[in-house]
Amino acid sequence: MSRPLIALLSDFGTADHYVGTMKGVMLGICPEVALVDITHDVPPHDVRTGARQLAASYKYFPAGTVFLAVVDPGVGSSRRGIAVETADHRFVAPDNGLLSAVLDEAPARRVVELTERKFALATISRTFEGRDRFAPAAAWLAKGAAITTMGRSVTAPVRLEWPAIVERPDGIEGAVEIVDHFGNLVTNVARDAVERLVRTGAIEIAIAGRPVPRLVDTYADVAAGELCALFGSSDHLEIAVSGGSAAAALGVGVGAPVRLTRPGL
Fold first, then answer.
1. E strands within 64-109?
2. Pairwise CA distance, residues 170 & 261, whole Å
3. Where are the domains of the chain?
4. Do domains 5-149 and 166-261 have the same CATH topology?
5. What is the largest CA-CA distance in the chain?
6. CA-wise closest residue to 55 among 138, 160, 129, 183
7. Mean pLDDT over residues 200-224, rounded?
8. How far is the C-alpha of 188 from the C-alpha of 261, rounded, in Å?
9. Per CATH, the architecture of 5-149 is what?
10. Residue predicted with more confidence, 42 or 199
């Protein structure tokens, strides 16, 4: 990359000064950095959704990108702040599982706790570590600091446990993991699992006990307001309503059970 790049993800929203203030801190340390917003609309304190949103996006950024991710219900507590280096990227985040989904795909080469004070602001707020600890660390990484200089090594960062899908010859059981901005219900059932089931015959899909009439290629394949299933950009099964919100129409959200079965079973 010709310029260092930091990509930001948080639950801060944009109505308050928080995101802009973090950017100001980073520009003060690394004036040449390019700053890209992934999202700041992660539901408040929702570490699981933040982890999934980060995992859905990081792989599309250039090698060398630094990611600053702050969804931190434990701000000011004894939970650690960490920096993580994978083969292609570096991440700064609270050690609360926010990097779990990324590390499931891209194993960490190095993990350090952010203990070296010269990479933080002089005073660290108990309520805004994004500004005082995480943003400075991300900026110093973008500026060229080695991750190993930022603190002591961490051998076991916090990892979240994800609901596993259950695959059987006659069906699959999964669950909704994310409700996106459009109300689409993104499940943990990957395309390859569905394709293995489909090879042996037709399937029926149900969410929270309600049948989903069709598995289609895109939203426009059904009439407006019609319920359907499809594979979204993450290659996971989604339940959607064309031109509407599946979450609102069905009254379900994260954790709702999804079943794929043989007809009549």
1. 66-70, 81-85, 90-94
2. 6
3. 5-149, 166-261
4. no
5. 66
6. 160
7. 92
8. 16
9. 3-Layer(aba) Sandwich (3.40)
10. 42
